[in-house]
């Protein structure tokens, strides 16, 4: 007979087994920016040649704030898929800058994409990580970043990214975006943001196929200046 395991009791939340006692959360003062305020900075300083790809929670919020023809709100549940998509676009259309908005949980699911980005030698790709320490869309389960001092910028730097930055306040973010935005990448910028209010819809209303068709039409036309 195998020895009976007397470890922690699990709780089940939205089909995901979560141990409430594993790890103690790190300093919560790390997450100070609201997600909406952080996204607004990108909108305020957006150039006409930036393709913006959203994913997961940002794919739900961004369409309520921006309807730019170069927006593409990617599949809301394709965790880890936005960066590879953005890389393909950056390689195919080097005359544009591609900005990928990735959640921290999504990037944790596909950290290998950082090495792939560097190996491609692409210079027109910027990844903006919206780090709130949660798998928010699936119910708010904690990521490893809630209990360990994970640094996405340090991991990107180790992979060979040309520009990396970790930002924790809205003033620092606004200053960086207006004055220090990288002219050549690849770049990864990690923003420490607060969890989104529960009132925000977890259902994505944007039609992905329609968004893709719109982007294809725009990219097949004359270059935006």
Low-confidence stretches: 1-24
Structural class of the secondary elements? alpha/beta
- Summed up, the domain count is 1
Mean pLDDT: 79
Assembly level: single chain
What is the string of SSEs from the N terminus onward?
EEHEHEHEHHEEEHEHEH
CATH architecture designation = 3-Layer(aba) Sandwich
Sheet with most strands: 6 strands, parallel
| Helix amount | 25-40%
The top-level CATH class is: Alpha Beta
Write down how many β-strands occur, each being a DSSP E stretch of 2 or more residues.
10
- Please give the alpha-carbon distance between the first and last residues: 72 Å
The CATH superfamily is Thiamin diphosphate (ThDP)-binding fold, Pyr/PP domains
Number of helices: 8
Lateral arrangement of strands in the main beta sheet: 4-3-5-6-10-9
Q: DSSP strand (E) fraction?
A: 15-25%
Could you tell me the radius of gyration in angstroms? 18 Å
Stated plainly, the CATH topology is called: Rossmann fold
The general outline is: globular
């Amino acid at each position: 007979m195998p020895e009976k395991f007397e470890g922690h009791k699990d709780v089940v939340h939205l089909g995901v087994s979560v141990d409430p006692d594993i790890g103690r959360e790190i300093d919560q003062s790390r997450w100070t920016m609201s997600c909406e305020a952080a996204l607004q900075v990108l909108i305020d300083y957006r150039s006409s040649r930036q393709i913006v790809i959203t994913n997961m929670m940002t794919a739900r919020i961004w369409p309520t704030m921006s309807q730019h023809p170069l927006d593409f709100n990617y599949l809301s549940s394709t965790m880890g898929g936005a960066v590879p998509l953005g890389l393909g676009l950056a390689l195919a259309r080097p005359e544009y800058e591609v900005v990928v908005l990735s959640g921290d949980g999504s990037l944790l699911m596909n950290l290998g994409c950082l090495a792939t980005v560097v190996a491609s030698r692409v210079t027109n790709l910027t990844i903006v990580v919206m780090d709130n320490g949660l798998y928010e869309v699936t119910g708010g389960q904690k990521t490893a970043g809630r209990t360990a001092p994970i640094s996405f910028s340090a991991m990107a730097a180790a992979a060979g990214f040309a520009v990396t930055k970790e930002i924790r306040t809205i003033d620092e973010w606004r200053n960086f975006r207006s004055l220090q935005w990288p002219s050549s990448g690849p770049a990864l910028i990690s923003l420490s943001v607060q969890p989104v209010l529960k009132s925000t819809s977890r259902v994505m209303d944007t039609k992905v196929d329609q968004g893709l068709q719109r982007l294809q039409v725009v990219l097949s036309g004359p270059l935006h200046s």
